[in-house]
Amino acid sequence: VSRSLAGAALAALGYADDPAWAAELLRYAQDDYPPVRQAVAGALPTMFAGSDLSGDAVAALIRLTGDTDPGVRDWATVSLGTLSGADTEAIRDALAARLDDDGGDTRFQAVTGLARRGDPRALTEITHRLGDDMATIYLLDLVAAAELADPVLLPALDRLATSWAGDDDRHTDALSYAIDRCQPGTHYLAKTRETELIAAVNHTLLHIGWRV
């Protein structure tokens, strides 16, 4: 019972939103009880909300992505790949190592994390999955495709759109978004809109001397 309570306490500690507690949390990253390690993996990103993960936190999450327990691997992969914006070669390699993971949706979280970092291994994985008529296409496949925003994915996405015509659910919404994101010129248009938005915000804030 005490170990279960420890896991719950560690998960709650993450919502303190105070990196000063990170050292205390990391003490349990190699605990013998998997739910405790899982709690650590899930709590780290929320503890560092609004700031970059520390080097020790990144190292712990990288190690936990290779944990023997599938639940720990899954949470560590989510935390490292999608809840953190940190980007190093070691992080990418840790995520890539999970592309063949057979536990839960870890492999899909891994490819999404790689896609957010523009890693070519994500494009290879998603191109293969979308081109496989026998593969079940999951929501995270479409999320990763949207993150990649690569026109090379359009033929496969368009085939899915034809196959799913008439459906109306989260998958078709995600598919539509991925198709829009993969259109040629989307990056240029997005950059133009971003520049216009920043200029408008800065003009509004001019009288108080702030800028974004």
Descriptive overview:
This protein is mainly α and 212 residues long. Helix content is 65%, strand content 0%. Helix 3 runs antiparallel to helix 4 (55-64) and helix 9 runs parallel beside helix 11. The longest helix is centred in the C-terminal third of the chain and has 20 residues, at 186-205. The chain is flat, with a radius of gyration of 20 Å. 34% of the residues are buried.
Average residue-wise pLDDT: 90
Radius of gyration: 20 Å
Low-confidence stretches: none
Number of helices: 12
Topology order in helix (H) and strand (E) letters: HHHHHHHHHHHH
Strand content: under 5%
Q: What is the percent of helical residues?
A: 55-70%
Q: What is the structural class? A: mainly alpha
Shape: flat
Distance between the termini: 49 Å
Largest sheet descriptor: none
Number of strands: 0
Task: Fill in the keyword field for this structure.
212 residues; mainly alpha; flat
Q: What's the SSE blueprint?
A:
Blueprint: H1 2-14, H2 22-26, H3 34-47, H4 55-64, H5 70-81, H6 89-96, H7 106-116, H8 120-130, H9 139-148, H10 154-163, H11 170-182, H12 186-205
Write a concise synopsis of the structure shown.
With 212 residues, the protein is mainly alpha-helical. The chain has 12 helices and no strands.
